[in-house]
Design a protein that fits this description.
Elements (H helix, E strand, L loop, with lengths): L3 E5 L9 H5 L5 E3 L5 E3 L10 H5 L5 E5 L3
Antiparallel strand pairs: 1-4, 2-3
């Protein structure tokens, strides 16, 4: 089980897929409607590449318990 929680602010997200492209553990998926979603986050290693690369600041990664 991951100790990190991954969230996408849907109001800010433009579904560009940059977070998916930079995630080394493939935590993000894309729906048929081309919307980004968080797969079960147990694979997240907390590198925060998604938060650093998101141009809209729509992705957050926090340690569970924060």
């Amino acid at each position: 089980m991951s100790k990190f929680a991954v969230a996408i602010n849907k109001a800010w997200c433009k579904n560009c897929g940059i977070c998916k492209g930079f995630c080394p553990k493939d935590v993000f998926g894309i729906t048929i409607k081309k919307e980004i979603f968080v797969k079960p986050e147990h694979e997240c290693i907390g590198c925060r590449m998604c938060t650093l690369r998101c141009p809209d600041f729509a992705v957050t990664v926090t340690e569970k318990g924060e």
